[in-house]
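User: Hey, my collaborator sent me this sequence without any context and asked if I could get a structure. I don't really work with proteins. Can you help?
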Amino acid sequence: MFVYRPVVNVYVNPEEDTEVHTQAFYSNAVEILEKGDWSRIRMIDGEEGWVKSSCLHPEYNLADPLIRPVKSLFAHIYRVPDTTPFPPLMTLPYGAKIKLQENFDPSVRWIPIELIDGKKAWIQRGDVDFEPRLKTMEELIPFALKFLGLPYTWGGTTSFGYDCSGFIQMLFREAGYLIPRNARSQIHWSGFEPVHRKDLQPCDLLFFGEERINHVGLYLDKGQFLHAGVRDEVHAIGISSLEKTKYNYAAARRMNP
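Assistant: No problem. I've predicted the 3D structure and written it out in structure-token form, which is a compact way to encode the shape of the chain:
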């Protein structure tokens, strides 16, 4: 099954008045474990939870050569090739996969696409990554800085709002690594190796917490790190000083070559 909404909350229990565990977004493939008005799903990173079954659709071929990812932080999808007179059908987050129509012309402004339910729609050329590729670790920090200022969202995994570990998971996915969803698991991932604080390098992960790990950020350089957390009394993606942060530094990890 595939998610057919821009973003859906994945809840701990099959009701909206309960904790959000994580999120799924348009084109995400999920495994159905139980189904009724609500479906218990398992995501590609192994996380499980409940979503409304109406948010899911049975058919979408992510291996189709016409599939491309959205590269904008927010991409409007329209019913006609024009920003007027109709409002967008939906707004997709960064990384959502769309299906281009056959014989599309990437040089024109408006690109016809086929939605998951088979309906035709339109997206603007600048919102589409026509030649996607994995990012190198050297490219990860410049890429990550594009997300500065986006709001923090508990359980968030999209450009509509990330939590700390959802942001880090997305960054490493862009480099081809499927790391665990939450910070407490990320610190133990087999692909990382411990690194001493005095030896920190750009792209190392910093973990914070006292009795347990509860926060994670991406080390930049010169004692600064990027994270989805509290900065200047605002919960958002921003840059903080390792020496002045309110978070209690616990450990660091580096991608194991």
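In plain terms: Residues 137-255 form a domain with the endopeptidase fold (from Nostoc punctiforme) fold (CATH 3.90.1720.10). You can pass these tokens on to your collaborator as they are.
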